[in-house]
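Sample entry (165 residues):
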Amino acid sequence: MPNDDLTIRPACVSDGPALIALDRAGWSWLSDVMPQRAEDASMFDERHGVEPFLIAELAGRVIGYIRQVPPTPLASNQHVRQIQGLQVSPDVRGRGVGQALVEAACMAARAQGARRMSLRVLGHNIPARRLYERCGFQVEGVLPEEFLLDGAYVDDVLMGLRLDD
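Predicted structure, serialized as tokens:
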């Protein structure tokens, strides 16, 4: 994978329950700073619309998503997009789905006129950091011991990629 059976498409409101189930299946302190979502939680609300989400499907099954948004509402940085959520079903990890989602998000950001993509990743999340590095992201800063997760202090790593190259 990725192959002809993998589809990446914009999300729709009806994807909400599948995305919650995906989040719950993939949740861990390795990648998450918030507690696990409740089964009856809503994926989309007034702060988190459906538009910034891209969905990965395989044979009609939702197996991943990515969310990219402007990092702030300020006009002065609307040329930047930030990945604020990436999840791939545990049973298909390591098969290129995450990379396909990151590449699709970067392509969508370019189409929106963005010049940069940024993200934050936990320092101990080596698989995610390697994924972003494969996609061309570079470490641009580190906030040491920014989070206390499951009894351990964890760095917050800031990464970025120029989209206009």
